[in-house]
């Protein structure tokens, strides 16, 4: 089955590396004034990890958001959605009308931001899945210590271009075939009559001893990029897929290096599949121990998530730990939230469970382990009616080069389970773009409200500047990152031509972080029994005494906000 359909855009098909690269290069060539395309690293197979930066002066510093997709090989929809967000960011600058549903004043504010889009963190993994199928967690490689251990290697044995499954008859098998849905295998029950089967991936066993069949690996022996980031990292075996050390993989190292070099990142969207849910911090503690100001902002994001893609938002710790009270380690959004001070979240695209009309479990993560036989039958019915039968295929005999007589067939989860049918991609792309533009509108916006020259007499003048943050978030971003040493406060720097600063030590003045107007949702100050605003912590002032005539230039900002420059003439005074 060809997942990469020639002639169709990223909104209607899943692009391979070459077509994805051409799409990015086309945008960069067409809009050089507002784009910068760079490779932040190369994969072991020699593919570039692309980042497209969009906005005025794209190589400069402005408050920015980051979007990434496809860090797991089979999660192809993330690339399409990331490209759709890039397209929406381009339209902010190229279309006269704001994007559908976006007020004009927000369009103008968003034009002052940068959008950094990395549509595919794992091009090697995606390419393998697109070309032949089979499970690839992050990249199609094994860690050196596991290279010579017996393991399954995915291979197209029947030449149909798709790697599905093998099944072997075994009296101790743990699966049976559905009587009503060809190709669907069900977990065995004690009352089920034979035949019984064991299931393995279509392929061969590397380093086989001739009799012992290894268990197919989900994470053992192969890196998981989403366990390879430094926050709360734990080595194997404490965390499967962790890698040898944080950033041991070239793909994750490239992302980390970009983030450190760009302290102006304020919001981070990590796109995965599947489930139809946003997963927010905290990953390691319950909400009662989370920063409550940040939690209020995430409540606002949750409202927008329900409005646009229609996905709920859950706590990573309370609803998305695979084992209760055992948080994941080395997660990308933990790195972005805790170490880079970003309003960070995961989106698991594609609401398959809702498509099947399954009831909501106690914890969202239970969806992934709680399908009953009737639910699986519902999936097979949906595949036949709504997914063009892309998932399930009947079984056929095959002579395996190692195992002898087996059967081949079963399901291909790439389209319908791991990713949405291409027919549903446009709606998902549009809704996620609308959502992320709203999130981006929360970023701080530094403004110079006044710059005055006040005569003091005897050829002396006082230069006064008043600056303010007109954005929702404070200039330090989320509360969790406020004290990070790289999260420097706003400064005002004095420069002049033709006049002298009386106190040279005051040339550089620290104004501190400026508050934002937003408070998130669920704050007592918003309630009608005593509504009240904060003080004027969103504003700051600085002044300098100069002598003589000339021009003064004041530069205000920080490495995270970027800088605003204003000039004022200094006339002679009596």
Characterization of the model:
The chain is α+β, with helices and mostly antiparallel strands and 574 residues long. The protein has three domains: 17-130 and 222-350 and 419-440, Aminopeptidase (3-Layer(aba) Sandwich); 142-221 and 356-411, no CATH class; 446-570, Immunoglobulin-like, CATH 2.60.40. It contains eleven helices and 22 strands. The protein has an eight-stranded mixed β-sheet with strand order 1-2-4-3-11-14-12-13, with helices on both faces. Strands 17, 18, 19, 20, 21 and 22 form a six-stranded antiparallel β-sheet that branches. α2 (77-94) packs across α11 (425-440).
In CATH, the topology of the largest domain is named Aminopeptidase
How many strands appear in the DSSP assignment? 22
Low-confidence stretches: none
Query: Distance between the terminal alpha carbons, to the nearest Å?
Result: 84 Å
Topology:
Elements: H1 17-30, E1 35-42, E2 48-54, E3 64-69, H2 77-94, H3 104-110, E4 114-118, H4 123-132, E5 151-154, E6 165-169, E7 175-177, E8 185-187, E9 197-201, E10 203-206, H5 250-261, E11 265-273, E12 277-280, H6 292-307, E13 313-315, H7 316-319, H8 332-339, E14 343-349, H9 352-355, H10 373-386, E15 392-400, E16 404-411, H11 425-440, E17 446-457, E18 460-469, E19 490-501, E20 508-512, E21 539-558, E22 562-570
What are the main properties of this structure?
single chain, 574 residues, alpha+beta, Aminopeptidase, Immunoglobulin-like, 3 domains, 8-stranded mixed β-sheet, 6-stranded antiparallel β-sheet, 11 helices, elongated
């Amino acid at each position: 089955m060809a997942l990469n359909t020639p002639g169709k855009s990223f909104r209607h098909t899943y692009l391979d590396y070459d077509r994805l690269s051409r799409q990015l290069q086309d945008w960069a060539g067409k809009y050089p004034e507002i784009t910068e395309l760079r490779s932040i690293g190369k994969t072991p197979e020699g593919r570039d990890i692309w980042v497209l930066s969009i906005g005025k002066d794209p190589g400069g510093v402005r408050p920015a958001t980051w979007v990434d997709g496809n860090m797991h090989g089979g999660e192809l929809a993330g690339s399409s959605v990331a490209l759709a967000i890039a397209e929406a960011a381009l339209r902010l600058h190229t279309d006269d009308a704001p994007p559908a549903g976006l007020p004009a004043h927000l369009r103008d504010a968003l034009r002052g931001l940068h959008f950094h889009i990395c549509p595919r963190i794992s091009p090697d993994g995606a390419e393998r899945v697109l070309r032949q199928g089979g499970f690839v967690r992050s990249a199609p490689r094994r860690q050196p210590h596991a290279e010579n251990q017996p393991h399954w290697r995915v291979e197209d044995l029947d030449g149909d271009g798709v790697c599905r499954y093998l099944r072997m008859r075994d009296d101790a098998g743990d699966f049976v075939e559905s009587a009503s849905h060809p190709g669907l295998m069900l977990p065995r029950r004690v009352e089920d009559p034979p035949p019984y089967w064991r299931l393995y991936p279509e392929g061969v066993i590397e380093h086989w001893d001739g009799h012992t069949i290894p268990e197919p690996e989900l994470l053992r022996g192969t890196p998981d990029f989403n366990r390879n980031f430094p926050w709360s990292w734990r080595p194997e075996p404490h965390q499967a897929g962790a890698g040898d050390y944080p950033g041991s993989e070239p793909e994750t190292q490239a992302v980390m290096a970009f983030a450190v070099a760009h302290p102006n990142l304020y919001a981070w969207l990590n796109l995965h599949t599947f489930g139809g849910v946003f997963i927010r911090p905290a990953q390691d503690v319950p909400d009662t121990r989370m920063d409550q100001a940040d939690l209020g902002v995430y409540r606002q994001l949750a409202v927008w998530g329900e409005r646009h893609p229609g996905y709920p938002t859950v706590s990573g710790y309370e609803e998305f730990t695979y084992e209760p009270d055992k948080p994941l380690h080395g997660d990308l959004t933990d790195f972005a939230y805790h170490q880079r001070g970003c309003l960070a979240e995961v989106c698991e695209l594609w609401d398959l469970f809702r498509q099947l009309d399954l009831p909501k479990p106690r914890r969202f993560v239970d969806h992934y382990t709680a399908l009953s036989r009737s639910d699986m039958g519902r999936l097979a019915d949906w595949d036949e009616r709504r997914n063009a039968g892309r998932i399930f295929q009947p079984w056929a005999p095959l002579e395996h080069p190692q195992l002898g007589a087996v059967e081949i067939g079963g399901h291909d989860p790439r389209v319908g389970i791991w990713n949405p049918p291409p027919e549903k991609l446009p709606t998902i792309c549009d809704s996620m773009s609308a959502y992320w533009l709203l999130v981006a509108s929360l970023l701080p916006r530094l403004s110079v409200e006044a710059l005055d020259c006040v005569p003091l007499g005897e050829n002396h003048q006082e230069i006064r500047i008043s600056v303010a943050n007109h954005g929702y978030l404070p200039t330090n971003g989320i509360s969790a990152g406020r004290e990070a040493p790289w999260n420097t406060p706003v400064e005002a720097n004095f420069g002049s031509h033709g006049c002298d600063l009386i106190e040279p030590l005051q040339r550089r003045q620290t104004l501190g972080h400026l508050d934002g107007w937003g408070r998130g949702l669920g704050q007592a100050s918003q309630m009608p029994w005593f509504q009240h605003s904060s003080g004027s912590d969103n504003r700051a002032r600085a002044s300098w005494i100069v002598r003589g005539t000339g021009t003064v230039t004041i530069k205000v900002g920080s490495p995270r906000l970027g800088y605003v420059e204003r000039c004022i003439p200094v006339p002679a005074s009596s």
